[in-house]
Automatic annotation (TrEMBL):
It comes from the Bacteria. The chain crosses the membrane at residues 12-29, 41-59, 96-117, 145-163, 175-195, 215-237, 249-277, 308-332, 353-380, 386-403, 423-445. InterPro entries: Na/ntran_symport, SNS_sf, YocR/YhdH-like. This is Sodium-dependent transporter.
Length: 450
């Protein structure tokens, strides 16, 4: 029976929604360019290792706590607390998480707006409307603000429909579309001149670059951002799962999909850069390094597309459409965090919570746009470098130290009794208790020092 608070109706729906949250702008342009400048396949190996030793266990902690409590992060952490102090600290952690999720959405909506604008700009070029196309790629307040509003309206519209009709239905439609678009773009770009050179840079490992301590810390941070950890997104999605689901399997599938799509995006972005080089577009800075991520996506790729004429405009529209979808399935998961809290802890109706909170976050985005130089980078650093790792640390402490061990194991066994004899069963509780918090503290310390 579907519960009154909403539930995913199928395993497929949950996987699409959770993978949709994880797969976002971070995967498609963050990961490939980082890999390119940091040792190619060697970076990939480090990233894979970290995803499985850190990100997957923390993801599991969030999903298990959420499914056990069938509540938002504030309610859930209070449920597994053991006394007044841990109850209050749990409620505080949940609230900080929803504030961080809201701030992540406020900058994410700006970038996602650029993606939609670039997509429409390519369509406008195809239609011969050069002036409109130019305005759509101009960095004006009017353009930026309009597309923040467009993107937030899409996010608000989906979340207003609820867990099944909104999140699940739209993720199940958009994620397969994303996969097909990404796959087709990869296949096409690999046929172009220069693509193989990019592929070589991506696939030939350079271990000297990939094994530096700074780089390991970076890969750890990106794995964390990539799986949407710490802010309660995965916890709230887990809370909409029924008790029959096999959680380690679902968590493994979501992690696997997230990583596979990041790796697949590397087969698009790296070859595309070298195709651009082949077409005379500059891809290295004066120091001989690959240019940075944002320049790559908003300068190199559009130049590449322009140099390819009509086919280029079509490809460009497709590429930015792909980015917009990836962003939308992530943004809905961010908005659901504060909305679920308002519904469950303050008795709001879903519609009024979505409109009010969505409106406030849109206001925050506009505020950032008005003070772009000062606020944009600051909000990204505060939320992703500090907020997410620190909150992830607290989740590990709750799963590993505060929650009663037998209750945790009983929750894990619910949908997967066969897991009792496996290695996962014996390792994971200790791992999330000791290894994960220490690793996260490591990242955090490094962030503070570096
Ligand atoms: N995982 C998303 C990405 O890789 O783009 C970003 C993200 C989504 C971060 C949801 C945090 C979050 F709660």
């Amino acid at each position: 029976m579907a519960s009154a608070r909403g539930e995913f109706s199928s395993r497929f729906g949950f996987i699409m929604a959770a993978a949709g949250s994880a797969v976002g702008l971070g995967n498609i342009w963050g990961f490939p360019t980082q890999a390119a400048s940091n040792g190619g396949a060697a970076f990939l190996l480090v990233y894979l290792l970290l995803a499985f030793i850190l990100a997957y266990p923390v993801l599991m902690a969030e999903i298990i706590i959420g499914r056990h409590a069938h509540a938002n992060a504030v309610g859930a952490l209070q449920q597994i607390a053991r006394g007044p102090f841990t109850r209050r600290a749990g409620a505080l952690t949940g609230r900080v998480g929803l504030v961080v999720a809201s701030f992540i959405l406020s900058f994410y909506a700006i970038v996602a707006g650029w993606m939609i604008a670039h997509c429409l700009s390519s369509l406008a070029s195809l239609a011969g409307a050069a002036e409109v196309a130019e305005w759509l790629t101009s960095f004006s307040f009017g353009r930026n603000a309009s597309f923040v509003v467009v993107f937030m309206l899409l996010t608000i519209g989906i979340i207003a429909e609820g867990v099944h009709d909104g999140i699940e239905r739209w993720s199940s439609r958009l994620m397969p579309m994303l996969l097909v678009t990404l796959g087709s773009l990869v296949l096409y770009v690999l046929t172009l001149d220069g693509a193989m050179e990019g592929l070589a840079v991506y696939l030939l490992p350079d271990f000297s670059a990939a094994l530096s301590p700074q780089l390991i810390i970076n890969a750890l941070g990106s794995a964390f951002f990539s799986l949407s950890l710490g802010v309660g997104t995965m916890l709230i999605y887990g809370s909409y799962l029924n008790d029959q689901e096999n959680l380690p399997l679902l968590g493994g599938l979501v992690t696997g999909l997230d990583i596979s799509i990041a790796v697949l995006a590397g087969f698009l972005v790296l070859p595309a850069m070298y195709v651009a080089l082949h077409n005379g577009v500059e891809i290295f800075n004066s120091a001989g390094e690959l240019i940075s991520e944002d320049t790559l996506i908003f300068l190199v790729l559009p130049e590449l597309f322009t140099s390819m004429g009509l086919a280029g405009a079509f490809l460009s529209a497709l590429f930015f459409f792909l980015m917009s979808i990836a962003a939308l399935t992530s943004s809905i998961s961010m908005l659901e965090v504060p909305v679920a809290y308002a519904i469950e802890e303050h008795g709001s109706s879903r519609r009024s919570a979505v409109v009010l909170i969505g409106g406030v976050i849109t206001g925050l985005s506009l505020l950032i746009l008005l003070n772009f130089e000062a606020l944009f980078g600051l909000v990204i650093t505060a939320t992703t470098r500090y907020g997410q790792p620190l909150l992830g640390f607290v989740f590990c402490i709750y799963a590993g130290w505060i929650w009663r061990r037998d209750a945790l194991l009983a929750e894990l066994r619910k949908g997967s009794p066969e897991i009792a004899g496996t290695l996962f069963w014996r390792i994971w509780p200790w791992h999330v208790r000791l290894v994960c918090p220490l690793l996260i503290l490591g990242i955090f310390a490094q962030n503070l020092l570096g």
